[in-house]
Amino acid sequence: FGEEEEPLHTILGKTVYTGIDHHWKEAVFATCGQQVDIWDEQRTNPICSMTWGFDSISSVKFNPIETFLLGSCASDRNIVLYDMRQATPLKKVILDMRTNTICWNPMEAFIFTAANEDYNLYTFDMRALDTPVMVHMDHVSAVLDVDYSPTGKEFVSASFDKSIRIFPVDKGRSREVYHTKRMQHVICVKWTPDSKYIMCGSDEMNIRLWKANASEKLGVLTSREKAAKDYNQKLKEKFQHHPHTKRIARHRHLPKSIYSQIQEQRIMREARRRKEVNRLKHSKPGSVPIVSERETHSGSVK
C-alpha cells in the first residue's frame, strides 16, 4: 500500500492506439488505431496487422464463440470483420453514418449489434450484411456504447442524450430507460456477468450501478415472496396486450430535453411518412417501390 506499481510488460507502438480487446481463450490480444494489430502477450512485435481502408479505427471486439473472428469500426463509416487464422479482412459493410462500437452476441456466434451516430442501433447477421436483422430506435442522440447481457436476450446502450436504455434483441423499442438529473453524456456501459446489474460511466466522472430489472427486490426472498413474484409476473404476461396494462408497462418519466426531442422526431417521421404515402397515391402503380424501415437503413457490403 502506498507503493507505485510498475507494469510487467510495456509495448511501444508506432501509432496511437484507440481500442483494445483480449482473446477469449488464448494469450492473444488485439489493438486498433491506424490498423488492427494482433499481439502475443510475450512479444513486442505484432503477430499480424490487418487493414482495409485508410481511416482510423475506433473499436475492435473479439467474438466470444467463434474466437478467431473479430470486428472493428472505423471513422469512414464502415464495419469490418476479420479472420485471425487467415490474417485477412472478410467483409465490410458501410452505413450512412459512423459506428462508434460493436458488441457480439454471447449466445449466437453470427449476430452483432452496432451503436451508430444516427441515434439507432443495428443488429446484423454477419452471413447477410445487406440488411440489418433489427433496427433499434429510441435514443435521441448518438449511441456511444453497447453491451450484451450474458443470456444474449437483451443488450444495454449508452447515449450522448444522458440516458441508458435496455433493448430486447428481437424488438425495435427499449423496455427500460435509466437517467438521473446529475448524469451527463454516458460514455461507456457494461452488463455484469451475473446478469443482475448494469454499470455505466459518464462525463461528470461518476460510475453508476443499476439493476437490470428495476422492480426486482435485492437480497434473499422467502418462499411466499417468490410465489407472489411469479404470480404477478404471470398476470402481467397474461394481460400484456390489454390497452391499460400496455400503457402502464410502457410509461416512463423522461427528462424534458429528451421528451421534447422525441416529440420533434415524431413530427419529422410523420411528415416523411405522409410524403411517401402521397407520392405513392399520386404515382403510376408500381413506379414507386414500397421500402420497409429495415431496408432504408441497409448499407453497402464489400
Task: Tag the structure with descriptive keywords.
nucleus, repeat, WD40_rpt, four-stranded antiparallel sheet, WD40/YVTN_repeat-like_dom_sf, alpha+beta, rRNA processing
In total, how many domains does the architecture comprise?
1
Estimate percent helicity. 10-25%
Look at the structure and give the mean pLDDT. 92
Give the overall form: globular
Tell me the CATH superfamily: YVTN repeat-like/Quinoprotein amine dehydrogenase
Integer-rounded radius of gyration: 22 Å
Percentage of β-strand residues: 25-35%
- Main beta sheet strand tally, sense and closure: 5 strands, antiparallel
What is CATH's topology name? Methylamine Dehydrogenase, Chain H
Q: What is the total tally of β strands?
A: 20
Distance between the termini: 53 Å
Q: If classified by CATH, what would the architecture be?
A: 7 Propeller
H and E string: EEEEEEEEEEEEEEEEEEEHHHHE
Low-pLDDT stretches: none
**Main sheet: strand order:** 5-6-7-8-20
Helix count, DSSP H or I runs of 4 or more residues: 4
CATH class: Mainly Beta
Q: How do the strands and helices of this protein lay out in sequence?
A:
Elements: E1 19-22, E2 28-32, E3 36-40, E4 48-50, E5 57-62, E6 69-74, E7 78-83, E8 88-94, E9 99-104, E10 111-116, E11 120-125, E12 134-137, E13 143-148, E14 154-159, E15 164-168, E16 176-178, E17 186-191, E18 197-202, E19 207-211, H1 223-238, H2 243-250, H3 256-281, H4 293-296, E20 300-301
Antiparallel strand pairs: 1-2, 2-3, 3-4, 5-6, 6-7, 7-8, 8-20, 9-10, 10-11, 11-12, 13-14, 14-15, 15-16, 17-18, 18-19
